[in-house]
Amino acid sequence: MKIGLFDSGVGGISVLRKLVDFFPQFDYVYIADTANSPYGTKNDNLLFQLVKNILNFLDSKQVDIIVAACNTADSVVKQCLKENSDTLYVSIIDNVKRIVKSDRIGIVATENTIKSKVYEKTLGSSVVYRKSLQSLVTAIERNFANKELIKNIIKETLKGINEFNVKELILGCTHFPLVYDIFEKLLPGIKIVDPANGIIEYMKEKFGERRNGKNNLPKVEFYITGNPITFEENMKNFINLSSIKSSIRKVGFGGVESETGIHNLRAFRCR
């Protein structure tokens, strides 16, 4: 079984590390579109084109499952899916319903995810608070060592959240769980929700929790559109490279847009 994941940068590592922990028997392909990061401020047409190229690339790698390890990309993909393919697409947004329990839910995400109101469409009137934390994406990608900066961004942006009586706060960008501990310390009265846990619940339901210990290291192929050296150095902050068998390659998607074009994108079915 081969699973494909994609994100604009290191954010999707928060999803990948959970998957390789619970399902080390699978192989993984991870695309970091760092040349076009961040996704959170891109217009829909450009995002659609970027995501289409990535999905076509993953299709060329013959993955069996595609996981959108990026909420912004997921909100775009969900606009154009049709159920006529053998490749399963797993939505990080849809599966959050498996793990939230409250009727007082808050969302923090990128600008595009907040504007799309995709979480409101998924969770309905339970969403009582939403806030863009776009600057946190850049801080994690470029200044992860500066914990004080990250702490101040979260603290200042979420000032006043307690007035909304939020019981659960969804980290609606896969970069944010990389600093999960900071959210917990700053918001002690609120349950912090990592949507990746919803994906794990779905995968366990579909494939069973089949851990095979650490004898066989999970194989992960990384493809980077920007500087692979910079990505690898940053990635070391978030995943133990000795726990996986990895390769890192630079890739461009200029030639991926084939004659079939949008047909490939529409072929994936969302679950």
List the helices and strands and how they pair.
Layout: E1 2-7, H1 13-22, E2 27-32, H2 44-60, E3 65-68, H3 71-77, E4 88-90, E5 105-109, H4 111-116, H5 118-123, E6 127-132, H6 134-142, H7 147-157, E7 168-172, H8 180-186, E8 191-193, H9 196-207, E9 219-224, H10 228-235, E10 245-250, H11 262-266, E11 269-270
Parallel strand pairs: 1-2, 1-3, 2-9, 3-4, 4-11, 5-6, 5-7, 7-8, 9-10
Helix pairs in contact: 1-9, 6-7
In short:
This protein is of the alpha/beta class and 271 residues long.
The CATH class of the largest domain: Alpha Beta
SSE string, helices as H and strands as E: EHEHEHEEHHEHHEHEHEHEHE
> What share of residues are in beta strands?
15-25%
Spatial strand arrangement across the major sheet: 10-9-2-1-3-4-11
What's the architecture of the largest domain in CATH terms?
Answer: 3-Layer(aba) Sandwich
Number of helices: 11
Describe this structure in words.
Helix content is 36%, strand content 19%. Mean pLDDT is 86; it is low at 255-271. It has 2 domains: 2-93 and 198-270, Rossmann fold; 98-194, Rossmann fold (3-Layer(aba) Sandwich), CATH 3.40.50. It has a 7-stranded parallel β-sheet, sandwiched between helices. A 4-stranded parallel β-sheet has the order 6-5-7-8. It is α/β, with parallel strands linked by helices and 271 residues long. α1 (13-22) runs parallel beside α9 and α6 runs antiparallel to α7 (147-157). It has helices at residues 13-22, 44-60, 71-77, 111-116, 118-123, 134-142, 147-157, 180-186, 196-207, 228-235, 262-266; strands at 2-7, 27-32, 65-68, 88-90, 105-109, 127-132, 168-172, 191-193, 219-224, 245-250, 269-270. It is built from 11 helices and 11 strands. β7, α8 and β8 form a beta-alpha-beta unit.
